[in-house]
Design brief:
The chain is rod-shaped and about 115 Å long. Helices cover 9% and strands 31% of the residues. A hairpin with a 3-residue loop joins strand 8 and strand 9. The protein has 185 residues and is mainly β. It is built from 1 helix and 13 strands, in the order H-E-E-E-E-E-E-E-E-E-E-E-E-E. The protein has 2 domains: 39 residues, no CATH class; 106 residues, Immunoglobulin-like (Sandwich).
């Protein structure tokens, strides 16, 4: 009998509400005012979808360690360019002097040479980028063929000249032990 009564209520509810129940809060659940249909407390409606967040800004250019992102080496911080410089008096490939410029100089070198007391002795030949992204510069003699105190000079695109003084040219040196000086343009 209860089933029949519920069916009549459902029929009346559909006829009077166009198939939508007329719920009211009766405590721990909601109940249709017409048919008595019960539902648990409705869940809060989902918030409308939010637009996706804007894409993050592009990353800054890589920092070459001098505080000047992706730019030329900073002449105000020459000590930061001692670590990657290497003077190899006898290279494995041709048995002659090769100098490895710090990686921060890669892409910014205009020319390199050896000088003594401000006078150019020999212009180097850039042969490529190897060993830790360092520009390699070759010369015509072994390192010991140059005078003590010779300077390896590197001119950057901005016109600054960086100099590493080599006290004993016949010995491998650099590797963080020679801080360059800079002649600014």
């Amino acid at each position: 009998m209860e089933e029949l009564i519920q069916r009549i209520r459902d029929w009346a509810c559909k006829r009077l509400t166009d198939g939508k129940h007329d719920y009211k809060d009766v405590g721990y659940h909601w109940k249709c005012r017409i048919c008595g249909h019960k539902i648990p407390d409705p869940i809060e409606p989902e918030p409308p979808p939010q637009p996706p967040p804007p894409p993050p800004p592009p990353p800054p250019p890589p920092d070459d360690g001098d505080g000047d992102p992706a730019g030329e080496p900073n002449p105000e911080k020459p000590g930061q360019y001692a670590r990657d410089f290497l003077w190899k008096p006898v290279s494995e490939s041709d048995g002659k002097l090769v100098a490895l410029c710090p990686s921060a100089f890669t892409g910014h070198i205009n020319s390199c040479w050896l000088e003594m007391d401000g006078s150019r002795i020999e212009t180097g030949r850039g042969v490529g980028i190897y060993n830790g992204n360092r520009w390699h510069v070759r010369f015509n003699k072994v390192g010991g063929g140059y005078p003590p105190g010779v300077e390896f000079a590197c001119k950057t695109d901005s016109g600054n000249v960086w100099l590493w003084k080599i006290s004993t040219p016949s010995r491998r040196s650099g590797e963080g032990k020679i801080i360059p000086t800079v002649r600014t343009k």
